[in-house]
Structure formats: C-alpha cells, structure tokens
Specification:
two-stranded antiparallel ribbon; 2 domains; about 65% helix; transmembrane helix; alpha+beta
Length: about 160
C-alpha cells in the first residue's frame, strides 16, 4: 500500500477464565486497512458522472441547435437565397416563408414584410422609370424630327 494511505490498528486478545486471577493474553489482532479502494471508487464514480453529464450537455446542445435550425436558420437561408436571386425580372414573385403564421408578428414576419415592401417599391420605381424613359425617348424623337425639318427648311431657303 502507498505510504500514508494505510490505517493500522492493533487489539490485544485476552482470555478470561474464572480460575485465573487476571486475564490471560493469547495474542494480538492487527487490522490493516487501506483507503485506496475508496479513492478508486470515488474516482470511478466521478469519471462516470463526468461522462453522463457530458452526454447530457451534448444532447442538450444538439437539441438547442435543432430548435434554432428549425425556428430561425432555415428561414434566414430562404431570405438570403431570395435576395441573391433578385433582379428586375424576378420581382414578380413575393417572398413567402414556409411556416405557420404567428399569432402576433415576430422579427421574421417583419423582415419578410419589409423585403416584400422593398420589392413592391422597386417594381413601382422600375415602372415609373420605364414610363419616363418612353416619354423622354418620344420627346427626343420629336426634337430630332423638328431639327430635321428646320434643317430642311433652311436648306430650301
């Protein structure tokens, strides 16, 4: 046994008989005990407890990760994909997240509404810009015709 981890106790063994005046010593009983096994049991239980606690923490973390994935990440990915594919030809399709409508608007619904509002504003601005371009192009064509007519008139004079 390692030094300091052993407990030793000695007890005298005596025999008492009524014919003897005093007890007769027949020997000694020495008990030697070590707390090494106690320490080993404590260490084993601590390691087992650490293993179980680690498994519980890992399962809790995986559960939390799954909840965040289902509740948030997939919707953010949908929005990022939608924003990446946006162009003037793809503005017709509104963003729609695949989830139940919340009882009261949350941050994801507000973001969805803001992106759809931005899409409608871009559509309106594009229509307005096209109308202005068509109108400006018509005025330019009219100015070119007028300039051509003026040049014709001056050439004939």
């Amino acid at each position: 046994y390692p030094e300091g981890r052993v407990i030793t106790q000695t007890f005298p063994l005596e025999f008492n008989r009524s014919s003897f005046d005093r007890p007769q010593r027949v020997g000694e009983l020495t008990i030697v005990s070590s707390i090494e096994q106690v320490y080993q049991d404590i260490l084993d239980r601590a390691l087992l407890n650490l293993l179980f606690q680690s498994i519980v923490v890992m399962l809790g973390t995986l559960g939390l990760l799954l909840i965040v994935r289902v509740a948030l990440s997939r919707h953010l990915e949908t929005m990022a994909d939608y924003a990446a594919k946006l162009n003037l030809d793809a503005l017709v399709e509104p963003l729609k997240l695949r989830r139940r409508n919340p009882s009261r608007p949350d941050e994801l619904s507000e973001l969805e509404q803001a992106l759809n509002k931005m899409r409608l504003q871009i559509l309106e601005d594009t229509r307005s810009l096209r109308q202005t371009t068509i109108q400006t192009q018509g005025e330019r064509d009219e100015a070119i015709r007028a300039n051509h007519a003026k040049n014709q008139f001056l050439a004939n004079v």
